[in-house]
Amino acid sequence: MTIGAFKIRWFYDGRHRPMERRDFAAALAAALAAPAVLGTSPAQAAERPEAGAGAGAGLTEHMRAVLARESDDRDTARALAPHLYDVGFVWHPETAELDRLDFIVAYSFGNRLATSGDPAKTLPEPGPVNEELADTIARLRKQRKVPVYAQWEIARFLQSKYRMDDVTSIEPVIAQDGTITYLSTDGVAQQVLQYRKKAPGGIGTACVVGFRDHHKRCVQTTRDRGMTAYAPRGFAMPYTYDPQSGQAWTRRRDLYLVHDMSAQWQVVRAKLIAQAYSNS
């Protein structure tokens, strides 16, 4: 049975018994109340990005119950269920009004392979998604003129298309032999932090720009690097995938969401290990 964005099926517990109808009804109600990964338009998300953030308690509780049965371990299920919900079902970052934000940090999404040259030593083409991210920054700058720190694929458009000033391009690392090493989302955040430490008045609060399905992780990563960070309230992020992207995982939404959840889990893993064994 399919309702909205959710395909619902009967579940079985560890003893292969069908879920009771009352459990199914509760899970369905929770799922419909929770934020839907595929059910909210970008404009709706921009207007009310935190909508439903507190409505996932029922779904989380249902996941905890199923996991407890499957694992025969209630304590572990209780610990894991909130992470399962956050990584799998929450895709809108926390927002703030633009006038509270002191600088823009923008993370690229995909690119187009260079048409010639050694791919290990030739920068790819920025691609249409990064042009849309640059367009988003231009809209933000019309309302608030603040410094911009943009990954190079976006910065190229800010410079060539908009002739925008006060833009710092976060470039890949190029070795002496010309080999290019591209920065991860965390690598970009680390570079931005170093720039902001030297800024007059201190680090300040970041306005984070990123592709819609990457946006939550962009905000989280910026915060994990020690910066206060929010998405700009009322501004929709680009959401159209480029089937010609040089990065295969950024060509289709179903592939990218798996990629992004995997990246989120790696961060959760590192944090949990550090919390559990802080003295090791």
Task: Tell me what the structure shows.
The chain is α/β, with parallel strands linked by helices. It folds into two domains: 2-89, no CATH class; 95-252, Rossmann fold. The chain is built from nine helices and ten strands. The chain has helices at 21-33, 42-47, 57-71, 74-89, 128-143, 152-160, 185-197, 212-224, 253-276, and strands spanning 2-3, 6-7, 95-96, 103-106, 148-151, 167-170, 173-174, 180-181, 205-209, 228-232. Strands 3-10-9-4-5-6 form a six-stranded parallel beta sheet, sandwiched between helices. A two-stranded antiparallel sheet has the order 1-2. Strands 7-8 form a two-stranded antiparallel sheet. Helix 1 packs across helix 3 (57-71) and helix 7 crosses helix 8 (212-224). The longest helix is centred in the last third of the chain and has 24 residues, at 253-276. It starts with a strand and ends with a helix. The model is unreliable at 1-21 and 30-39 (pLDDT under 50).
